[in-house]
Amino acid sequence: MTKAFGKLAAVEARLFLREPMAVFFALVLPVGLLLALGTTIPAFREADPSLGGQRLVDAPFTAMMVLLSVVTLGLSVLPAGLVLYRERGVLRRLSTTPVRPSALLSAQLLINVVVAVIATTLTLMLGHLVIGVPLPGSPWAFAGVFVLGTLTILAIGLLLSAVAPSSRVVQGVGAALMFPLLFLAGMWLPRPLMPEVLRRISDFTPTGAFGQGLMDTLGGHAPQPLHLAVLAGWALAAGLAAARLFRWE
């Protein structure tokens, strides 16, 4: 069974690499934006009193690029692939073989987690080497927030794939959710600059809690218990709902 799962995961990995748009938006775009904006816009490299003396390119913007990669995978790549497999009868046909449909689901999750880890590593390392972005001040805390946040976003993606009737619908819904969730995380308006009411709303969204947790740990601070609780709550609720509603056919 382990050998069969390994082969299945390898096939899924090759299929992922054959999707240029998925590779671009999950791996290339976040790193490219960080390096391009960080090297060409002087304001990104200047200490900002409103951000506690940090440069925008440090914890705030780097955290958003990590978040962008994970959200792209969770709300676009993962649900679109699973719904397409269901439409084409792949999951139904797998149920008649020794490789159960759940193995394909596990392989998809594994690949998306691996891609998220690779994208985050590239973002941190190249940002550090090229524009001097500090490495996480609290590496273990950063890793914990990253794992919890990634599982939360992927659980929401599984829920989307569970309820979406078609691949076209799930792509539209994923895109419709992605932009407001990224806004609430601080992608275009950093959370410290948000009005108090908007920031409180952001605290209880999965991307707001995830993004702030990443910013805190990149800056060497402990994540706030509220944000960890929010992520855990979203992960549990979305995961249980996805398990209950997911259809193989």
From TrEMBL:
Its main location: membrane. Belongs to the ABC-2 integral membrane protein family. Keywords: Antibiotic resistance, Cell membrane, Membrane, Transmembrane, Transmembrane helix, Transport. Coiled coil: none annotated. It comes from Microbispora hainanensis. InterPro entries: ABC-2_transporter, ABC2_TM, ABC2_TM_bact-type, ABC_2_transport. It is found in: Cell membrane; Membrane. It is a multi-pass membrane protein. This is Transport permease protein. Residues 21-249 form the ABC transmembrane type-2 domain. The chain crosses the membrane at residues 21-41, 61-85, 109-134, 140-162, 169-189, 226-246.
